[in-house]
Specification:
This protein is an alpha/beta fold and about 350 residues long. The protein is built from eleven helices and 13 strands.
């Protein structure tokens, strides 16, 4: 239909691309085009799939011909060790895509990033604002690529000020199905920690990640935004909720082991087990006007329960999981109604004034 908004989701064969496309298609006024170099394994009803590499020079023509309004870029391969072939796909693919968006006159682009780009350092302020330098450890492939993508995005914005570019820097993503550095860390039978260190961490539920990406695509939100629950949680409390046994080791030995064996020995860079990397959520709350629905405790409890259920610990365990999940759902819905009621009251007050 002529009044439909056309949104492109790149990396639609990936977990994030597939879920975001499905959520977008719940809206009546949206036509979703999914682009990937391989077909998605999970079919999404109503998805218009196009098999293509983002580095194809005909991408500009495609965006123009389809009159694309918004692009959500989720084509990203996450690797621990730096790889030139993955760098070519992640970074150069993003460069080509952004160039095509600028040339085709795409109104809005949304990029997914991470709070980890700031780096975990002893001199970090307690809460990092979006203008803080990106000092993440480039020895990890996914961190190097995120930082390089963000650096290019800055120059793209300067050259294409008419395109609204939104970057969402998520906290540690956790969920039953998400495959992330933090979920890989929490799935370990024994969690390696650094003796004498218990940094605060920000955990966000995978469902809130999808909601934030869709929210960003439905409005004009230029700039970078930290996205996570405002409340942090100590690492050791996170491990306790996940039913993981912490194994404290001396940090010089841990760093020495990783330096010999490479990043594959640690799903999370050791600095994030030692120093804080906490984002300031003021801009998310006041400008992006987005609020995660899950608390950090709910997120980790659900993850832990799902892990136990998968190990078939019996009927009582499954019943307890269902009870806890419904209790958390009721609490989230209550918080959501209270927030919406407060916003409505503020709008009525402002209108009356």
């Amino acid at each position: 239909m002529a009044d439909e908004r056309v949104i492109v989701v790149t990396g639609v064969a990936s977990y994030w691309g597939n879920r975001v496309a499905a959520r977008l298609l719940e809206q009546d006024d949206v036509h979703v085009i999914g682009i990937d170099d391989e077909p998605p394994q999970d079919n999404v009803d109503g998805l218009d799939f196009i098999q293509a590499d983002l580095r194809n020079p005909l991408l500009v023509e495609l965006l123009q011909q389809e009159q694309v309004e918004t692009v959500i870029h989720l084509k990203f391969r996450e690797t621990l060790t730096p790889s030139e072939s993955v760098f070519e796909q992640n970074v150069m693919g993003t460069v080509k895509l952004l160039g095509a968006c600028g040339e085709a006159g795409v109104a809005r682009v949304v990029l997914k990033s991470s709070l980890m780009v700031y780096g975990a350092r002893p001199d970090n302020p307690m809460f990092l604002r979006e203008d803080h330098p990106l000092n993440g450890n480039k020895k990890y492939g996914y961190l190097r690529d995120w930082i390089e993508i963000e650096k290019y995005a800055d120059s793209f914005h300067e050259q294409n000020p008419e395109t609204i570019l939104t970057i969402l820097r998520f906290g540690h993503i956790v969920g039953p199905k998400a495959d992330t550095p933090m979920t890989r860390f929490l799935r370990e039978e024994e969690a390696i920690t650094l003796l004498g260190f218990d940094p605060m961490v920000q955990v966000i539920h995978e469902d809130d990640v999808v909601s934030a990406l869709v929210h960003a695509a439905n409005g004009d939100h230029p700039g970078a935004f930290n996205v996570a629950p405002e409340k942090g949680m100590p690492l050791w409390k996170t491990l306790g909720l996940a039913s993981k046994l912490p194994i404290p080791i001396l940090h010089p030995f841990a760093y020495w082991s990783v330096s010999l064996g490479g990043p594959r020995l640690a799903p999370l860079p050791l600095d994030y087990l030692r120093f804080p990397c906490m984002g300031d959520m003021t801009k998310m709350r006041d400008v992006l006007q987005f609020t995660p629905q899950y608390t950090p405790e709910e997120t980790v409890r659900e993850f832990s329960s799902q892990q136990r259920v998968r190990k078939l610990l019996g009927k009582k365990s499954r019943e307890a999981f269902e009870q806890n999940r419904l209790r958390d759902t009721l609490q989230r819905r209550k918080r959501s109604r209270e927030r919406e009621g407060a916003r409505s009251a503020t709008r009525r007050k402002n209108k009356a004034a």
